[in-house]
Design goal:
The protein is mainly alpha-helical and 258 residues long. Helices cover 75% and strands 0% of the residues.
Length: 258
Amino acid sequence: NAKRFHLEIHSTVFWISAGVILFFVVATLTNLEQASQAFDSVLSTIATSAGWFYVVAVNIYLGIVVYLLLSQYGHIRLGGAEAQPEFSYWGWFSMLFSAGMGIGLLFYSVAEPIYHYGAPPWGEPDTVASAELAMSVTFFHWGIHAWGLYGLMALGLAYFAYNRGLPLTIRSVFYPLIGERIHGGWGNAIDILAAVSTLFGLATSLGLGAQQVNAGLAYLFGISQTTETQVILIAGITGIATLSVVLGLDKGIRRLSQ
C-alpha cells in the first residue's frame, strides 16, 4: 500500500514515534485529572520561565528570513538554476493560507483580541491599554512573526531536499552541523522529536477546530455539542486532510485549498 501511494516509511522513526504518541494518549485518557494538572503545571512553568525566550527566538528567526531575502542568498533558486514554479501565485497563495492558517485565523482573528482585551496577560482588563495589548499579542501570533517561522522551516527543507538531494525530512536541515550522521541515530532522533512535536501541535489545533465546527453546526442545524460529535468531526477532517496529502500537492492540497 505504501508503494502504491508513493509513500516511503522509515520503520525506526515511524514505530518509535507511534509508540511515544500512543503512550501519551493512553496515559492521558486513563489519568485525565492527573494529566490535566501535569500539563497545566508544565505550561505555566514554560510560560513563566521561558516566555522571554520564545519572543526573542521568534524575532531572531524573522530577522534571519529577512536577511536571507535581502542578501545574496535571496537569489538562490530553489530546485536548481533551471527550476520553474510548479504552481501559479494564486495556487501558492491558496495553499499557504488554507493549509498554513485556515480555521485558526478565521476564528482567532476575532476571538483572540477580544479574549486578551477582557483578560490581558498583565494590566487592567476592558481598558484602552488592554485593547492595545490585545492587538499587539494578536499581531505577534498571526502576523509576520508566524510567517517568519513557517518561512525559515520551509526554506531549510526545500533547499536541502531540492538543491542538495537530501531526504525531505527535518534531519536534512541539520546536515551542515552533523554531516552524514543525519542518516544514523542522530537523524532518527531528530525526526522522531519532530514527528511527535508536530502531531501534538496539530492535535491542539484540530481539537479547537472541531469544537468551532461543532459550535457552528449547533447554531445552524441544532446538532448537539458533545464529545462524540467532535470525535466524528475530527475523524472526518483527518480523513479529508490525509486524502489530500496522499493525492499530492496538485491533485489534493491545491484543489482543496482553492
